[in-house]
Design goal:
single chain, alpha+beta, BirA Bifunctional Protein, domain 2, Rossmann fold, 8-stranded mixed β-sheet, 5-stranded mixed β-sheet, about 20% strand, binds zinc ion
Length: about 425
């Protein structure tokens, strides 16, 4: 069938069979996050565009090229959320959820929007599972958040995750580092892409995660941020690493891991699996973000997991459970018994069975074909002559075997029920 309209480029339908496997992943996340005392939050899909310009960064790819921005009918500049952290922080502040001395822990599951070039595992509407922990600066929280992320993948059966770890420092050490990067990159100006030439002026750190080959070649030789960390940031990162080491959590130090958003500070991390060039989850600290959104000067940390990529990997590895529910019973009946049939279907459904019923009530033979098409496990055939003696036929649709049984054997009773 060719419909009159098809979905837009970069968005897609998640069909029933797939939705079920998605829900299973989400349930796993909910169950795991609950044990770490995170509470679920849902924020709107639309937010003031200005909020992301401020937090994600004016020079970031997200704001410059990818954000869906439009004016609503009230002439407000609105964005479809490109990420989940700023909305959660905004909600935290707007609803006065801050309790001094208490870490506020949230998680969200929802869709995000970025006008990116669609490719495998990268859609314009994409889905994220994320957490945010607000109000605690201790490295112990960093470690816990990283462990939680790894644990999630492990519970899904991914045993070959690779953790990439870095620190991007604080504004203080970053301004030193930016200076060093500018000095380093200036002689290579001609080898940098057009975007990076702009970045060199505005935000040289951004050059480090440029995907253009020429830039990547230069970046290899660039100075490491770890040599520019201030004392506070250095000690913090050493603590994170030393606890991960003692817990035997292995990681690769990746000093080019600056993430695509401006608000990150100190610890940043990403998780991938062997053989994959993309991350399936990542995050970091954002100690200036809450203040930046008009709140108190509180630290924060979080991560987000990309559902599309995760689902692809799980499917590739045979770890995705994709099965459709089929009816437990299909009810077939003589047309005169329609009321009884509807009643029986309701009683069985009340008991939790998946029940399908013939809506055409043609002859019994054509109803049996319907039952076949429905893939039901069993059929209940209600024939007038048998029902007079409170009996029905129960047919096993796999083996084809059938038997006359008393209605009382069905574990539901329509005996004595009269409509
Ligand atoms: Zn610092
Ligand atoms: Zn570049």
């Amino acid at each position: 069938m060719k419909p009159k309209y098809t979905s837009l480029r970069g968005v897609r339908d998640i069909l029933p069979e797939e939705v079920k496997s998605w829900r299973r992943i989400e349930d796993k996340a909910r169950e795991l996050f609950r044990r770490y005392n995170y509470k679920e939050i849902e924020t709107p899909i639309i937010e003031p565009a200005e909020m992301f310009v401020r937090t994600v960064g004016e020079e970031s790819d997200i704001v410059r090229k990818e954000m869906y921005v439009f004016k609503d009918r009230g002439d407000r500049l609105v964005a479809l959320r490109p990420e989940g952290t700023a909305p959660v922080v905004r909600a935290f502040l707007e609803n006065n959820l801050y309790v001094p001395g208490k870490v506020a822990k949230f998680y969200y599951i929802g869709d995000m929007f970025r006008y990116d070039r669609p490719q495998a595992g990268r859609q314009r509407e994409f889905h994220q599972i994320g957490i945010e922990a607000l109000g605690e600066s201790s490295y112990i929280l960093d470690v816990e958040v990283i462990i939680l992320l790894l644990e999630f993948f492990k519970e899904l059966g991914l045993n070959d995750t690779i953790l990439l770890l870095n620190s991007v420092g604080c504004p203080k050490c970053r301004s030193e580092y930016s200076k060093a990067l500018r000095e380093f990159f200036t002689p290579y100006l001609d080898e940098l892409c057009e975007d990076c030439k702009v970045r060199l002026e505005n935000n040289p750190l951004r050059i480090l995660d440029c995907k253009v080959e020429g830039c990547k070649r230069v970046v290899v030789k660039a100075p490491s941020i770890l040599d520019y960390l201030c004392n506070d940031c250095r000690v913090h990162f050493e603590n994170v690493r030393s606890v991960l080491d003692s817990l035997d959590v292995r990681y690769i130090l990746d000093t080019r891991l600056v993430r695509g958003l401006d608000y990150y500070t100190k610890t940043t991390f990403e998780v991938t699996v062997s053989g994959l060039d993309l991350s399936i989850g990542g995050g970091g600290r954002y100690d200036g973000l809450i203040k930046d959104l008009g709140g108190p000067d509180l630290p924060g940390i979080g991560f987000a997991i990309g559902m599309e990529r995760l689902v692809n990997i799980l499917r590739d590895r045979g770890l995705l459970i994709e099965e459709e529910d089929v009816p437990d019973y299909f009810i077939i009946y003589d047309v005169i018994l329609v009321t009884k049939a509807i009643m029986l279907s309701k009683l069985l459904r009340d008991q939790g069975f998946i029940v399908e019923i013939s809506y055409t009530a043609k002859n019994l033979k054509s109803q049996l074909k319907e039952a076949d098409r429905s893939k039901a496990k069993k059929s209940i055939i209600m024939r007038e002559d048998l029902l007079a003696n409170d009996k029905v036929i129960l047919k096993d649709m796999t083996t084809g075997e059938q038997e006359e049984i008393g209605l009382d054997k069905l574990e539901v009773s329509i005996i004595g029920e009269r409509v």
